[in-house]
Design goal:
Blueprint lengths: L21 E3 L9 E3 H11 L20 H30 L1
Antiparallel strand pairs: 1-2
Bound molecules: zinc ion (2 copies).
């Protein structure tokens, strides 16, 4: 009598095949349309692709904004801070020695 999947067959994640919280993040339709955003993020991370393999539309994920430019700025920022600290320590050491 019970058929647990009868209600959720239309909206299951195409990556993990679990229903619930699925979204259509590209132009695919039908059973391949829906995907958990987290599953998609992981898939993007693993595959290195940012567009759908089926419809070739760029995925609509908003969290995927950490691009190279931001990374470079972040690294430069870290380097800047550590450089300042190094200079500061150097000045302190020189002052203490003199
Ligand atoms: Zn999923
Ligand atoms: Zn698609």
């Amino acid at each position: 009598m019970d058929s647990p999947t009868s209600e959720c067959t239309e909206s299951t994640c195409r990556i993990c095949y679990e229903p619930g919280g699925v979204e259509n993040l590209c132009n695919c339709t039908g059973s391949m349309a829906y995907v958990h955003e987290k599953c998609l993020q992981r898939w993007i991370h693993v595959s290195g692709r940012t567009s759908c393999e089926l419809c070739h539309v760029k995925f609509n994920t908003e969290q995927k904004k950490f691009n190279i430019e931001e990374r470079v700025i972040y690294v430069i920022d870290c380097m800047h801070v550590s450089l300042c600290l190094a200079v500061l320590v150097f000045i302190l050491v020189v002052l203490l020695l003199v």
